[in-house]
Design a protein that fits this description.
The C terminus is likely disordered. This protein is of the alpha+beta class. A five-stranded antiparallel sheet has the order 2-1-3-4-5. It contains two helices and five strands, in the order ααβββββ. Helix 1 packs across helix 2. The termini are far apart.
Length: 89
Protein backbone atom coordinates (compact mmCIF):
# COMPACT_ATOMS: atom_id res chain seq x y z
CA UNK A 1 0.00 0.00 0.00
CA UNK A 2 1.18 3.53 -0.77
CA UNK A 3 2.53 5.47 2.20
CA UNK A 4 0.10 8.39 1.87
CA UNK A 5 -2.88 6.02 1.72
CA UNK A 6 -1.63 4.01 4.71
CA UNK A 7 -1.26 7.18 6.79
CA UNK A 8 -4.86 8.13 5.94
CA UNK A 9 -6.45 4.66 6.37
CA UNK A 10 -4.66 4.13 9.71
CA UNK A 11 -5.66 7.68 10.70
CA UNK A 12 -2.14 8.57 11.77
CA UNK A 13 -2.80 11.58 9.51
CA UNK A 14 -6.49 12.27 9.00
CA UNK A 15 -6.39 13.48 5.37
CA UNK A 16 -4.54 12.00 2.42
CA UNK A 17 -3.62 15.40 1.00
CA UNK A 18 -1.92 16.33 4.28
CA UNK A 19 -0.13 12.96 4.24
CA UNK A 20 1.06 13.60 0.67
CA UNK A 21 2.26 17.10 1.57
CA UNK A 22 4.22 15.71 4.54
CA UNK A 23 5.88 13.15 2.25
CA UNK A 24 6.62 15.75 -0.43
CA UNK A 25 8.13 17.98 2.27
CA UNK A 26 10.56 15.19 3.22
CA UNK A 27 9.14 14.96 6.75
CA UNK A 28 8.32 11.24 6.55
CA UNK A 29 10.76 8.36 6.62
CA UNK A 30 10.40 4.59 6.54
CA UNK A 31 13.10 2.54 8.27
CA UNK A 32 15.36 5.59 8.44
CA UNK A 33 15.10 6.53 4.74
CA UNK A 34 13.18 9.57 3.48
CA UNK A 35 10.00 8.31 1.82
CA UNK A 36 7.82 9.68 -0.97
CA UNK A 37 4.01 9.43 -1.00
CA UNK A 38 4.15 6.45 -3.39
CA UNK A 39 6.61 4.42 -1.33
CA UNK A 40 5.25 0.97 -0.48
CA UNK A 41 4.56 0.26 3.20
CA UNK A 42 5.03 -3.27 4.59
CA UNK A 43 4.22 -4.84 7.93
CA UNK A 44 7.07 -4.33 10.36
CA UNK A 45 8.20 -1.02 8.83
CA UNK A 46 9.00 1.88 11.17
CA UNK A 47 7.44 5.17 10.04
CA UNK A 48 8.76 8.48 11.40
CA UNK A 49 6.88 11.75 10.84
CA UNK A 50 8.03 15.23 11.84
CA UNK A 51 5.50 18.06 12.19
CA UNK A 52 6.98 21.38 13.35
CA UNK A 53 8.12 20.64 16.93
CA UNK A 54 6.21 17.35 17.19
CA UNK A 55 7.30 13.99 15.97
CA UNK A 56 5.89 10.49 15.88
CA UNK A 57 7.48 7.09 15.40
CA UNK A 58 5.19 4.14 14.71
CA UNK A 59 5.59 0.49 13.77
CA UNK A 60 3.29 -0.89 11.06
CA UNK A 61 1.42 -3.88 12.49
CA UNK A 62 -1.22 -4.45 9.84
CA UNK A 63 -2.09 -3.25 6.35
CA UNK A 64 -5.72 -3.10 5.29
CA UNK A 65 -7.49 -1.25 2.46
CA UNK A 66 -10.53 -0.41 4.57
CA UNK A 67 -10.84 -0.21 8.32
CA UNK A 68 -13.40 1.22 10.72
CA UNK A 69 -12.42 4.33 12.64
CA UNK A 70 -12.41 2.56 16.01
CA UNK A 71 -10.18 -0.24 14.62
CA UNK A 72 -7.64 2.01 12.88
CA UNK A 73 -5.27 2.23 15.86
CA UNK A 74 -4.74 -1.55 15.64
CA UNK A 75 -2.86 -0.98 12.36
CA UNK A 76 0.17 0.53 14.12
CA UNK A 77 1.99 0.80 17.44
CA UNK A 78 3.27 4.16 18.65
CA UNK A 79 6.94 3.85 19.61
CA UNK A 80 7.63 7.55 20.30
CA UNK A 81 5.71 10.80 20.21
CA UNK A 82 2.04 11.69 20.16
CA UNK A 83 -0.81 10.41 17.99
CA UNK A 84 -2.36 13.82 17.19
CA UNK A 85 -0.40 14.73 14.04
CA UNK A 86 -3.21 16.28 11.98
CA UNK A 87 -1.91 19.83 11.75
CA UNK A 88 -2.33 22.36 8.98
CA UNK A 89 0.79 23.36 7.12
Amino acid sequence: MRLDKYLKVSRIIKRRTVAKEACDGKRVSINGKTAKAGTEVNEGDIIEITFKEKGIKAKVLKISEHVRKDEASAMYEILEGEEDTDEEE
